[in-house]
Amino acid sequence: MGMTMTQKILAAHAGLDKVEAGQLIEADLDLVLGNDITSPVAIKEMDKMKVNGVFDKDKIALVPDHFVPNKDIKSAEHCKCVREFAIKNEITNYFEVGEMGIEHALLPEKGLTVAGDVIIGADSHTCTYGALGAFSTGVGSTDMAAGMATGKAWFKVPGAIKFNLVGKPKEWVSGKDVILHIIGMIGVDGALYKSMEFTGEGIQNLSMDDRFTIANMAIEAGGKNGIFPVDDLAKAYMKEHSTRNYTVYEADEDAVYDEEYTIDLSALESTVAFPHLPENTKTLSEIKQDITIDQVVIGSCTNGRLDDLRIAAKVLKGRHVAKGMRCIIIPATQAVYLSAMEEGLLKTFIEAGAIVSTPTCGPCLGGYMGILAEGERCVSTTNRNFVGRMGHVDSEIYLASPAVAAASAVTGKISGPEQL
Amino acid sequence: MKKANGTVFKYGDNVDTDVIIPARYLNSSDPAELAEHCMEDIDKDFIKKVKKGDIIVADKNFGCGSSREHAPIAIKAAGVSCVIAETFARIFYRNAINIGLPIIECADAAKGIEAGDEVEVDFDSGIITNVTKGTTFKGQAFPEFMQKIIAAEGLVNYINNK
What is the ipTM of this complex? Predict the structure, then answer.
């Protein structure tokens, strides 16, 4: 019985020739990540441990991104706690405002995550790095503390679901539509405790930014991780961004999968997740009535990368957002921001009546920078549309691609670029 | 190991960590302060009614979404002695064990227990007794490794004791 790609990475990091689903292992970690919300709790827990400092100052990344630039005094205190810890422990990869970006966009861009790694992060969207062929998964603060102290974490080896992607997506259909389609199909607990293994010739038709978006939302199907094979595009990305050596793992021919799905990318349409779960999906053509909206957010660890902003700009170019619409665009990192400026995307956004913010998770989790009032509706490229996620418990979030979000900002109702 | 005994608060599928502790309160990491807002966006009255030792029972995928450990911390600090669910989201499951909040997966109990029932849980045997209805259920036992973490009341003590 063979191993999946995920199982091979875990076996190698546990010093074992072979692992199987359900087995409990202890694995060596290549990177431990935390942000301004989860790290203070981890630092407090680490203080209780009888250890002298961190296991490796180069293998910890601290990225204040959720409530920065500090939204209030309490957030400022949290950031101060993280900053002081980083200085005291000489953490190499601490990213201050000005250098920081949204963690899951920033770390691959900085070359800190590569194929074959085992990565834990005290943030559920840590699964993003599976796009590069790494095993990466979200944990809580205590796991982060133990990881920082010991360089190890315990895992239950996951079973797997295989998604065989074939065909080429139509114009305006992107990674977001692929993953929303999948979550709509299997549900928000469809991959509970399992790895989501993407494979198939269709992957060559997905950009790296598409793959980051897909891996990012594996958690929204309950998945432990999402993972892609390492092809030439992924290798070129790592060559451009990283000086680290990477290891390519491939699933065995006889690897065991609990379920297998084939998804024809050419048959997918723009997809929207209705309140209040990411599994409540409809294609644009299935939406029969007008759904008027008050706000659009384009950004986040899911869709704040350069490809996403390019698509939004293509839609907004020469157009203007609807009267009364707040359109908030958040480049995920400083590098994305700079490229967007150099390419003229920011000019397009501002001329269209949108605003552009410094990198922050801000509105995605109802932190700040775009909180919704009672009864308001938002089309957002973020990842969760739970009750109260972006503000008032009686507000509504519709998750969509950058193309649909931008088009909806123009019309004031849920729309696709084809409808402009 | 200890037992839990309390009155049940009952919820449905996919109770996410955003409704357990909304992000607007995550500028604090103080357990007592987090507890004041526990379950606020799904059950405004929870924190007014909950008594020390009470039990949360839910259906599928309890604790899905954000990895915030503040969620099990808030539940524990609110006085809840145990969470029983048909299934838990995996990060919540880890977090609960790591901070020493007892949790048990049991589909039959999730179906056979209603809000307001008095329930007793024996962590050694995994037996869940609905005292009000006179029924019993067998929860899924933890692997030995996790039992050790739970017995140490969390991962920090477990590592310190090693």
Answer: 0.96
Q: How long, in residues, is chain B?
A: 162
Q: How far is B96 from chain A (nearest CA, A)?
A: 9
Instruction: Give the Cα separation of A325 and A348 in Å (integer).
Output: 16
Report the alpha-carbon distance of residue A16 to residue A20 in Å, rounded.
Answer: 11
**What is chain A's percent helix, strand, coil content, to nearest 5?**
35, 20, 45
CATH 3.30.420.380 correct for A271-419: no
Asked if A252 contacts A146 with a C-beta cutoff of 8 angstroms, the reply is: no
Torsion of CA A13, A17, A19, A25, to 10 degrees: -40
Phi, psi at A273, each rounded to 5°: -95, 120
- Terminal Cα distance for chain B, rounded: 20
Which residues from B are below 8 Å from A396, CB to CB?
A: none
Q: In b/e form, how buried is each residue of A31-56, taking b as 16+ CB within 10 angstroms?
A: bbbbbbbbbbbbbebbeebebeebbe
3-state class of A138 per DSSP? Answer: strand
Taking an 8 Å cut-off on Cβ atoms, the answer to whether A387 and B87 are in contact is no
Which residue, A359, A362, A345, A368, is CA-closest to A99? Answer: A359
| Nearest Cβ partner for A224 among B14, B69, B90 | B90
Choose, out of B40, B61, B67, the residue to mutate when testing the contact with A (most A CBs < 10 Å): B67
Question: For the CA atoms of B53, B59, B64, B69, what is the dihedral angle to 10 degrees?
Answer: 10
Enter the CATH code of domain A5-264.
Answer: 3.30.499.10
Domain boundaries in chain A?
5-264, 271-419
Tokens of A36: 């301004």
Per CATH, A5-264 and A271-419 having the same topology is answered yes
Q: From first to last of its 420 residues, what are the pLDDT tens digits of chain A?
A: 899 999 999 999 999 999 999 999 999 999 999 999 999 999 999 999 999 899 999 999 999 999 999 999 999 999 999 999 999 999 999 999 999 999 999 999 999 999 999 999 999 999 999 999 999 999 999 999 999 999 999 999 999 999 999 999 999 999 999 999 999 999 999 999 999 999 999 999 999 999 999 999 999 999 999 999 999 999 999 999 999 999 999 999 999 999 999 999 999 999 999 999 999 999 999 999 999 999 999 999 999 999 999 999 999 999 999 999 999 999 999 999 999 999 999 999 999 999 999 999 999 999 999 999 999 999 999 999 999 999 999 999 999 999 999 999 999 999 999 999
Reading the block at residue A110, the tokens are 């900085």
* A376: closest CA of chain B, how far (Å): 16
Of B127, B128, B130, B121, nearest to B101 by C-alpha is: B121
The beta-carbon neighbor of A48 closest among B26, B69, B156 is: B156
Question: Residue A273: beta bridge partners?
Answer: A281, A399
